[in-house]
Amino acid sequence: MAKSVEEQLESTLNSIHQIETGGQRYTIKDRELWRGDLRILDRRAERLEKQVARQKRGGIRMQRVVPL
User: Fold this and answer.
1) In DSSP terms, which residues pair with 32 in a beta bridge?
2) Quick one: the chain helix, strand, coil %, rounded to 5?
3) Rounded Cα gap, residues 16 and 35, in angstroms
4) In a 10 Å sphere around its CB, with 0-12 CB exposed, 13-18 middle and 19+ buried, how is residue 13 labelled?
């Protein structure tokens, strides 16, 4: 089942927290592993925060409609 926008935001914020506390890369034995790209995660979090705010307001609002 697809995650809700709130769940996606929480997951993204957890990923950002992991990078901030544990670093972007780490090694296990002789392998070097990278976590997600912090810049991309920041942009995703901003976009998801806007979507959550929009949902809480009740969706997209239109102020004016100009007939064609």
Assistant:
1) 27
2) 55, 10, 30
3) 9
4) middle
